[in-house]
């Protein structure tokens, strides 16, 4: 089981994490003994946009490829990989090794044409959702910039007044540090 929600979500909203770990019971209901259930949670707080840097996802793919996995269980499986490349690679390996995929909506067999079609659509929708979120965030930034309300981190040595005006930091040590750095360049 993997989940890829931001870490701060887990600090404030434990429901998703509890649901995720509660899937052990669902696996038991589906016929797996508790000793045979492995929870892979290495990727908590990491984005599913790529398998790169996601040790848990890579471990999952490797375990499936060694034919050690009978069922992959998650809350919303299409969020496991929001990259079509990674998602379809997982589906292909699962089909080859007859590994089932299950989420709250059902149990799917990636070697079955209809199940694979549905899983493919879920993956495509998940990737599209990520693109839409990015578009909305960018449009929000552009709108703020047009209104003159877009703020950003200032370099060391500058501060933003409550009015929004950017000025040199009144701290002499900070200003002195900047002038030394500039003169060294």
Explain this structure to me?
The chain is mainly α. The relative contact order is 0.09. Helix 4 runs antiparallel to helix 5. It has two domains: 138 residues, 3-Layer(aba) Sandwich (Rossmann fold), CATH 3.40.50; 34 residues, no CATH class. The strands form two sheets. A three-stranded mixed sheet has the order 1-2-3, with helices on one face. Strands 4-5 form a two-stranded antiparallel ribbon. The chain is built from six helices and five strands; from the N terminus they run αααβαββαββα. A hairpin with a 2-residue loop joins strand 2 and strand 3.
Q: Give helix % range.
A: 40-55%
What percentage of amino acids are in beta strands?
A: 5-15%
How far is it from the N-terminal to the C-terminal residue, by CA? 51 Å
CATH architecture of the largest domain: 3-Layer(aba) Sandwich
- Regions with pLDDT < 50 over 5+ consecutive residues? 1-7
Question: What is the fold-level CATH name, i.e. the topology of the largest domain?
Answer: Rossmann fold
Structural class based on helices, strands and sheet pairing:
mainly alpha
| Discrete helix count | 6
Q: What letter string, H or E per element, gives the SSE order? A: HHHEHEEHEEH
User: What overall geometry do the principal axes of the alpha carbons give?
Assistant: elongated
Mean pLDDT: 81
Q: Please report the total strand number as a whole number.
A: 5
* Rg from Cα: 23 Å
Count of the domains = 2
- Biggest beta sheet summary: 3 strands, mixed
Name the CATH homologous superfamily of the largest domain. Resolvase, N-terminal catalytic domain
Strand order of the largest sheet: 1-2-3
CATH class of the largest domain: Alpha Beta
